[in-house]
């Protein structure tokens, strides 16, 4: 069972308060009060309740739980709370919990400890868990290796269905999922997989190799977690096996861990689209300092971008003094360009993230985007033309209409191309945030506007 | 098995081309060519391959598949392709496929047909399937009812584990998932659930009621699909039971269908954030007409919003003529306000969507937002102050610095509050798009800027 991401956590808690589960109804009216049915409540709800308590009480309540339940509840706590408790607990209590945690959760907790705490914990663990932690905590964040678990069930190809079921019965309680078992050859290479219900449906003496799937989908250790989630979604898998370079099975990523990873990536995309530097905490719980630091970087950077627009304006100061009504249309024109650009950029960022669109599609899409932008720009030119007539006469109207057409096209093409460009440079396309596209479109828009004005109004 | 959403579809296909599965390696170099191993390839890959073919060939290839596989492949086709084939196939062939489809896929296909086609299809089906379609196709889009399936396994509380396993063995092949079975009383009320591996682990004569979970999490028929997905994620469920007002089990939502629904909602949020009206097609495959229509609405609407900024400028024309260097700072100031606002709005839209933040959190968050905005605004005022000094002297620098502080605060507060306001009005918070927030901030920014300028420069 995974450590729930913070936002997923808080999210579901809200849903429950809207009436999702009758279990914590009582809690709803008086959050932080005693949980009504400690024994019946799902562990995730217990964890949410513990997080509302002061650490001393949370520790006492956690230790009051029976052991398998204590571990499960601990696994659902947010990383910060786990850390706080891990530091308060006796080493014996901590080791007891950590030994029972699933391999991926254990590695996550381990990664959050200081080197001294890691050593202290490792000394308390049995050799098997120790090696498991060392292995799982070594993979780069965002890869299949980092979100996989080593709790999977394996079978041999020459077992019978009956033998396999008996083996699973004996081993099942330890494993994160037994709904699919993996078949390995003598060198631990993945040669097949089989679902529990196929085993149950098969005649008792059927050999596994006759009924197993001989070509299970798998990923490499360093595969991007986004790709892992996409494969799990495409093939409706409960878990995806992870293999090393030699094709040996090293772990599985379960569907829920992949979904959590995907949710975190999506939230990161939202943050980037809004020029907020990624942070993985809950917005509700993030400190003011964190939010300030995550937001100020791009805000200041974009100020310098906007100075280009200012410089453009300064260059055309005479035009402005001669036709001050041009300024009236300035926000309108540069915003429209930015809006069209944000539309294209955001659509592409999402399409690249879900895999709807690939790098190679750029050529096909750019022509279509040009035609759409032409239609959008023409429509908007028609809309602003009468406003131009009213405010400044026919010459101004022409300048404004023509500018609108051009800046919408420029904005759209820039907005569409930037995510591809970033992706090609192996940067995250989501960095092509709406404000960045807007700033670029603004600077270009100012130049185009006053250049057209200067030319057409023959200044 | 669900109909894969288009973007999920295309997405995974991309991943595969990057080297995910060796199965379709050959296909990679020559897309649209014959699939190398029709018998070994997963149905979802077969479906992706069929979609590349002209309809006549796709039909022939589909009918060449053996029956259970034909249905599975058909279920994975995109809705448009399903429709095209459904219209080409003989009624007998169509009925054969439709009868075997999972209940939710069948209802989805049905909903896409014209009323005449629906009648034609219904006449060919057995009474059970007919009633199932009528029932499932009646629920409002976006609710649990619309994405649930009626293919679930049920058990009685007084069965033994052995009897239950035998029952599942007989019924399993028809059911979408048997990893969790539901226990109903004599009036079909949901009284418990049990996992397959608990049945397998239990002694053969254990009665279900002794080992079942007596308080399974469930949702109402009209629950929002977002809430369904949140509950499934929170409790790491494979499926969530859906009950009617009397607590009777009417269906289950499987984790993969919930994930697809969630992915669609997230994409919609991205579209809304970028002022693109929601469309559920793939960006790659959407026609130019669709993209034009989905984009033009807000672009034109925002033009009228921007006219307020223009009107503000017109009102202060004299100030501008007296201090034309003020225009230099105009894009900078209004963009900064818009950027800060987009940051807040997008963070809140996402936090409300994942449930990280609830309506009632507004009070707590608004004060924090004010303090953060104060810090952001002060930093940015310090950044632009020297630029003001350089371009226009100390008075202009003061005006620009003070304006920056105020507009960043106003933009942030507006950006944060708008999603809450929309949510309270029962509108989608994602409508508080970055461009809308920018437009509002712009208009306010222009007024604040020139008002401060007029006052401080004593015009």
TrEMBL record, chains A, B:
Per the UniProt record, which residue ranges are transmembrane?
Answer: 296-314, 320-340, 370-390, 396-422, 434-452
- Primary location: membrane
Membrane topology is: Multi-pass membrane protein
* Gene Ontology MF: a single term: magnesium ion transmembrane transporter activity
Report keywords, A-Z.
Answer: CBS domain, Cell membrane, Magnesium, Membrane, Metal-binding, Transmembrane, Transmembrane helix, Transport
Query: Which Pfam families does the UniProt entry name for this protein?
Result: CBS (PF00571), MgtE (PF01769), MgtE_N (PF03448)
**Family matches, as InterPro entries:** CBS_dom, CBS_dom_sf, Mg_transptr_MgtE_intracell_dom, MgtE_N_sf, MgtE_transporter, SLC41_membr_dom, SLC41_membr_dom_sf
Q: Which residues form the CBS domain?
A: 148-210, 212-268
Listed under GO cellular component are: plasma membrane
Compartments (UniProt record): Cell membrane; Membrane
Tell me the domain of life: Bacteria
Q: Cell membrane: present as a keyword of the record?
A: yes
Family per similarity comment: Belongs to the SLC41A transporter family.
Which proteins does it associate with, and in what oligomeric form?
A: Homodimer.
Q: What does this protein do?
A: Acts as a magnesium transporter.
Name of the protein: Magnesium transporter MgtE
User: Which organism encodes this protein?
Assistant: Nitrosococcus watsoni (strain C-113)
């Amino acid at each position: 069972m995974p450590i729930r991401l913070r936002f997923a956590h808080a999210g579901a808690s809200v849903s429950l308060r809207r009436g999702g589960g009758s279990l914590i109804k009582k809690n709803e009216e008086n959050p932080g009060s005693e949980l009504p049915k400690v024994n019946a409540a799902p562990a995730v709800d217990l964890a949410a309740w513990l997080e509302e308590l002061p650490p001393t009480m949370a520790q006492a309540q956690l230790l009051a739980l029976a052991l398998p339940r204590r571990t499960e509840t601990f696994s659902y706590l947010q990383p910060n709370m786990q850390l706080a408790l891990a530091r308060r607990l006796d080493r014996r209590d901590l080791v007891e919990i950590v030994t029972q945690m699933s391999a991926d959760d254990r590695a996550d907790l381990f990664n959050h400890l200081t080197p001294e705490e890691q050593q202290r914990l490792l000394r308390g663990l049995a050799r098997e868990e120790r090696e498991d932690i060392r292995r799982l905590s070594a993979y780069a964040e965002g890869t299949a290796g980092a979100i996989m678990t080593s709790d999977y069930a394996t079978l041999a190809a020459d077992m019978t269905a009956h033998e396999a079921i008996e083996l699973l019965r004996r081993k099942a309680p330890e494993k994160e999922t037994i709904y699919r078992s993996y078949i390995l050859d003598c060198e631990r290479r993945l040669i097949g997989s089989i679902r529990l219900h196929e085993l149950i449906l098969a005649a008792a003496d059927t050999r596994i190799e006759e009924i197993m799937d001989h070509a299970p989908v798998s990923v490499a250790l360093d595969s991007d977690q986004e790709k892992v989630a996409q494969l799990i979604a495409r093939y409706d898998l409960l878990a995806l096996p992870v293999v090393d370079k030699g094709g040996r099975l090293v772990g599985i990523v379960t569907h829920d861990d992949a979904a959590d990873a995907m949710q975190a990536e999506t939230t990161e995309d939202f943050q980037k689209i809004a020029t907020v530097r990624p942070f993985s905490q809950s917005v509700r719980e993030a400190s003011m300092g964190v939010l300030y630091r995550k937001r100020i970087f791009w805000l200041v950077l974009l100020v310098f971008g906007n100075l280009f627009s200012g410089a453009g304006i300064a260059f055309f100061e005479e035009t402005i003094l001669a036709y001050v009504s041009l300024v009236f249309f300035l926000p309108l024109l540069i915003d429209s360009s930015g809006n069209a650009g944000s539309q294209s950029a955001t659509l592409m960022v999402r399409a690249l993230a879900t895999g709807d669109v690939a790098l190679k599609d750029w050529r096909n899409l750019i022509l279509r985007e040009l035609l759409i932008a032409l239609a959008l720009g023409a429509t908007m030119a028609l809309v602003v033309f009468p406003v131009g007539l009213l405010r400044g006469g026919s010459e101004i109207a022409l300048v404004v209409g023509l500018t609108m057409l051009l800046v919408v096209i420029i904005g759209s093409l820039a907005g569409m191309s930037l995510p591809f460009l970033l992706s090609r440079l192996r940067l995250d396309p989501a960095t092509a945030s709406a404000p960045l596209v807007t700033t670029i479109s603004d600077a270009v828009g100012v130049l185009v506007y006053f250049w057209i004005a200067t030319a057409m109004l023959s200044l």
